[in-house]
Fold this protein.
Amino acid sequence: MLMLMNTAEADASSCVEPGLSARPEVVGRVVRVLGIGNVLLGDDGFGPFAVRTLEAEYETSEAVEVLDAGTPGLDLTPFLADARAVIILDTVRSDAAPGTLRTYDLDQLLSTPPLPRTSPHEPGLREALLATELVGRTPDSVLLIGVVPASTATGTGLGPEVRSAVPAALELAVTELVRLDVPPARRDPPLEPDIWWERSGPLES
């Protein structure tokens, strides 16, 4: 899950990813769709599940990269730097009912981000965005499509509330791709999504 800090900003110099320098001239900047989450923690696997389902149901152009980013931690910065736009699918903390979708744009993420989760694998999305902003390599737009999880206990597979939210989350992602002028084409018939962790059997805590 994404760690989206509400606390006072750290010293700006500490936010820069080592080796992250000012943006070079980039031709044909891509749109990235990132699924973030730990597939061994129940509903936290929503992001990887969603992007793999997106790949199975839609064909995207070369201008779009669809990536299962797993749990990149502070290594999230390279996924953001130099992209034209980034769409992120992940779980978010909220008092809303499990399965509820929440969306946040770039300005919201930088100013009033959603409350943080407390887990050792959480990447700092706000910190990564600040790092790219410092060197002028921030995406033109960012959209976080978040779902409220029911359980992130050890185990594979999404719960019914989060699984049922996947189609609506994908519709939001496709709508954003259309807005960005990189519309995906629906596959007919769709492919079988590669949800490998659900084929490997249950994992209990």
User: Anything to note?
Assistant: The domain at 28-182 is CATH 3.40.50.1450 (Rossmann fold).
